[in-house]
Structure prediction request, 219 residues.
Amino acid sequence: MTHIAHADPRSTARGRLVTLEGIDGAGKSTHASWLADELTRRGRRVVATREPGGTPLGEKLRELLLREPMTHETETLLMFAARREHVERVIAPALARGDIVVCDRFTDATYAYQGGGHGVPLPSIAALETFVLHGLEPDLTLLFDVPPAVSRERLARAVAHGRALDKFESEQASFFGRVRDAYRARAAAHPLRFRVIDSTQPITAVRGILARIVDEIAT
Ligand code: TYD
Prediction:
């Protein structure tokens, strides 16, 4: 027995699933909260959430995923375990209520990080996606795109301000190069769903782009 079918935006749901993606240091989390606030200001009911996480169990899995060494396959399975809880308990009910879900990372991150970054075969990820999501896809995915060098520089600045890096953030530049390439390949394969935003621009310029996107989805 599953409630997932009700979450399919192509069938009964009236809400929208908007996901934000990008390599670490692309600025996506800052933009996620701005986007959620702006949509709320425009009178939409918004659920702002994140992956891995978004549920009590998912947040526990996030702790493990961001700290514990594990095989790439285990990592992939735990990402999807957290995602299954998230869809069932948070995303599907919100979409069924007609809310806009603003989700900081979703399945594209698994294709990019575990697939592109760690070399987990893409067909294995696709099989898990089918098993866990039953065809649920974001309505809109914003890819905040920066070269790995820019991401490194931003992360180094965060470290200088006393922030500790997690397991993924501590990866080499070559890893982020592969993750970025995988994200861009996803965007090229799904051109109607993705918007690629040049995130080397100043925050105000990116906000200008987001403001136009808000105009499209708030109505
Ligand atoms: P991130 O979204 O960057 O959070 P914060 O903004 O708080 O730093 O951190 C989540 C990390 O998890 C990020 O490095 C990417 C990684 N990740 C995957 O590797 N696969 C996934 O499927 C998801 C959702 C995240």
Observations:
- The longest strand covers residues 16-21.
- The longest helix spans residues 72-97.
